[in-house]
Design brief:
With 281 residues, this protein is α/β, with parallel strands linked by helices. It contains 12 helices and 8 strands.
Length: 281
Amino acid sequence: MRPLAWPLLLLIGGCGQAGETARPALFVARDADTTLWLFGTVHLLPAATRWEGEKLATAMRAADELVTELPALPAGAAAAAFLKWGRAKGLPPIAARVPPATREALRAMVERTGTPLAQLDGLKTWAAALMLGARAAGLTGADAAHGAEAVIEARFAGRPRRGLETLDAQFALFDGLSEADQQRLLAGALAGGDDYRATLNAWGTGDLAALERIVTDPRSTSPAMRDALITRRNARWATWLRQRMAAPGRVFVAVGAGHLAGPNSVIAQLRAAGIRVTRVQ
């Protein structure tokens, strides 16, 4: 699985139906000698999803450099880091970490995704949520190989690339959540079918208001969780991007779609700093 899927919500997405042409949001910030394109990625997509319109293709051809959440990773690095951070000894069974009313949903999800309960029992609650969320999305035909990030990485082969964070830093964010918030993530995973389809539609139509509503859904998020996983990271990234604007170049910035929606988004923070950011798709 890819790191930091922001389980089931805004860093996973696609278009509404396989084969439809999606038009996800694309932004651009410019000054005299610098151009930054900002695009919200989705980590898992069905193979038939078409989202590379002419504006996106033009931006990717024109950029000299790619900036993503993470730098290029060796094969297997994400899976190894997930297990390093996500496993622990002496945990209660996963069924004991969900309310009694939710245990039937857990049983059904385990059965649908073919995930052994014993495997989940050995995972921290956030890690179990990530695993179930990714596997539930996979039942729709979505996978990381066809996700927007994978396609963008291929388009930029041979050009410079840098990451805004490290893999360990991303997993540490989840590991620092309270158990109550981890259980919120797990509850979201168990309701993930409907959430995933809603997110597919919102991303594919460029509906940032709908994406924001999903990000702030109290059923699977809390203020503390949003602060840790979204708001503070957006502030760090916006600071980096402001500094990058001081040097010439053409940069394509691809981060999870949830980071571009709402009043605390990367876009909003750049605009608050006086940078003109225009939506071009």
